[in-house]
Amino acid sequence: MPLRRVTIHDVARAAGVSTTTVSEALSGRGRTAEETRERVRRVAEEIGYVASAAARSLRLGRSGALGLYVPDRTVGFEYYVQLARGAAEAALSHGMALTLVPAWDNVEQLRALHIDGLIVADPAVGDPVLHVLRSLPVPMVTVEIDLDPSATPVGVVHADHLGATAALLDHVAAAGATSIAVLAPGDETAFGEQVRRVCADRDRVRVFDIPLAYRPEDATAAVDRALAADSDALVLIPDGSAIVALHHLQGRGIRVPDDVLLASYVDGPSLQIARPRITAVDIDPRLTGEAAVQALVDVVVSGHKGAIETRVPAVLNERESTRRG
Amino acid sequence: MPLRRVTIHDVARAAGVSTTTVSEALSGRGRTAEETRERVRRVAEEIGYVASAAARSLRLGRSGALGLYVPDRTVGFEYYVQLARGAAEAALSHGMALTLVPAWDNVEQLRALHIDGLIVADPAVGDPVLHVLRSLPVPMVTVEIDLDPSATPVGVVHADHLGATAALLDHVAAAGATSIAVLAPGDETAFGEQVRRVCADRDRVRVFDIPLAYRPEDATAAVDRALAADSDALVLIPDGSAIVALHHLQGRGIRVPDDVLLASYVDGPSLQIARPRITAVDIDPRLTGEAAVQALVDVVVSGHKGAIETRVPAVLNERESTRRG
DNA sequence: CCTCCTTGTCGAAACGTTTCGACACATGGT
DNA sequence: ACCATGTGTCGAAACGTTTCGACAAGGAGG
């Protein structure tokens, strides 16, 4: 019952060549005659040869797996699921696996994961798990800039938050807002820091604090503060918080967009499910995941030297929550 | 700079024993003197030895990775994220990695993942990717029963949907509902099939169809049909649909719970964020993920024979959406 | 003293790749 | 004829584990 696995030796025997030739023919390295190469490929296919990842890893000293660490927030699931999907697909298309890295602070066990590279989504200053992860001897790419001064990732992929925030504020202003409240997290992430920088440059825009890993009460409290300050437009930055705000506003009998305008930063399916649909900036998380994998592959397998920076585009999705009339 | 890795030979030399002894001491197999065992452990720790996963895999013929496939739905993210987290943690605590399996239908590439076992979340009859996955030569555990007759997973972990549905319906009835509309998916999943079975046994309970992978319009349409049939309580089965329904009801000016009662089947953070908070049955997805990994580990590493069935508990979380007065 | 069993240790083979260096042969220039 | 160069192929070593079978030492029982 447990059939012996088909090895490269079987292919070699069946094709009448050496294992060296098989290896070179299949990988495209070395100098093999085109005719031989073709024959070997056909034979391999025929007898169902799949190279052993273990043997290859052992020889190459690479595990063939990339790790993905996503922080343990209470919200923002949609974003991370899509990010993970994009990353997993990109990894597989490069012949690598994407391994989920749990929020674990035991170095021993994390080392046992044997990954060749690590993707960290939304690194936050002070995350203890992240601190441990940084001590792993593998290259790391962050999605969004890591503000920790001790961090030296080999790559960063991030959206143009400066531009996107500006576009969002312009849009809300154009929609008739005269006093805009931006509910933003602090500067423990580059994201929050950049948003705040844009806001600081503008008149009639005030920033209200909302924790990065917020509880619903945090969000509603921030909304109340903004309303008390006579804001007529609310821009919610953290993923998922716009929904909370909408519920809260509707609970208080405040109409959107008639009484106040509402916009979100991070887009996602739930914003299109909500009524009214909520205006948001779409930063495609799948693309982001793919880019992160690409950067890591460049470093790990292609041996790229030096830092890699990838920018993913942001698109403003204008919806009913900022449309009056 | 690229330091040579610390191997078992280094440990052997440093401890003055053979590699055999090191291997046996660290793994606890074989018959090693307790004193030697202790010394080897200390030395290994000291010089920072981490066994090579690749070498071990090669020798053992196991990759040390479990795969997780989650269907590509438009909703239900929270559930799957928690499931994945639980599974990843459980896997790591067994010294294995959890690999994300993308929704890909290329057998070649999927084989290249080299996983020892596969967890499939919510198998749906007719899923083409699932069909391909079944042809992989690895044991498979499903979360929820696979209704496909050609499916023969080695394990199933599922909640007591029969009991949970009954409890939910009882609760809603006790809260004052006289005509309960249950919005449930069809019987392409065991989940839907079981819910329908419970409903069929009851008076004053009608079932309305809602696709498993629903778009928001599908959900709102089903809600409208239920309301047109004079229902005074809505029980939404698919994950995430209760939120859509709540938005829709509020948009139509219908108050919850005053005008109609609302309850969800799958619980999640967003149901506690909503206003009013929505009653739901909590089936802890983390526990579910852990159980799935446990079953797979039993089969793959401990060589368990025969089918494994694990039941995870369900708890009714009563909230404001079904509380009148 | 010889045999038998137990206990602790070890040498060496095997797992399946990739790749270095060598070899054989052909080609073309001197 | 000889050498230099280029092309296609291959043997064998190496990657780091686990484990089978063997061996030595020590006691128990005859």
Task: Tell me what the structure shows.
Two copies of one chain form a homodimer. Chain A is α/β, with parallel strands linked by helices and 325 residues long. Chain A folds into three domains: 8-51, Orthogonal Bundle (434 Repressor (Amino-terminal Domain)); 65-159 and 285-312, Rossmann fold (3-Layer(aba) Sandwich), CATH 3.40.50; 161-282 and 316-322, Response regulator (Rossmann fold), CATH 3.40.50.2300. In chain A, 42% of the residues lie in helices and 17% in strands. In chain A, the strands form two sheets. A six-stranded parallel beta sheet of chain A has the order 2-1-3-4-5-11, covered by helices on one side. In chain A, strand 1, helix 5 (77-93) and strand 2 form a beta-alpha-beta unit. The longest helix of chain A has 17 residues, at 77-93. Chain A is elongated. The termini of chain A are far apart. At the A-B interface, helix 4, helix 5, strand 2, helix 6 and helix 11 of A face helix 4, helix 5, strand 2, helix 6 and helix 11 of B. The structure holds a DNA duplex (30 and 30 nucleotides). Chains A, B: This is LacI family transcriptional regulator. Chains A, B: It comes from Nocardioides albidus. Chains A, B: One of its GO terms (molecular function) is transcription cis-regulatory region binding. Chains A, B: InterPro entries: HTH_LacI, LacI/GalR-like_sensor, Lambda_DNA-bd_dom_sf, Peripla_BP_I.
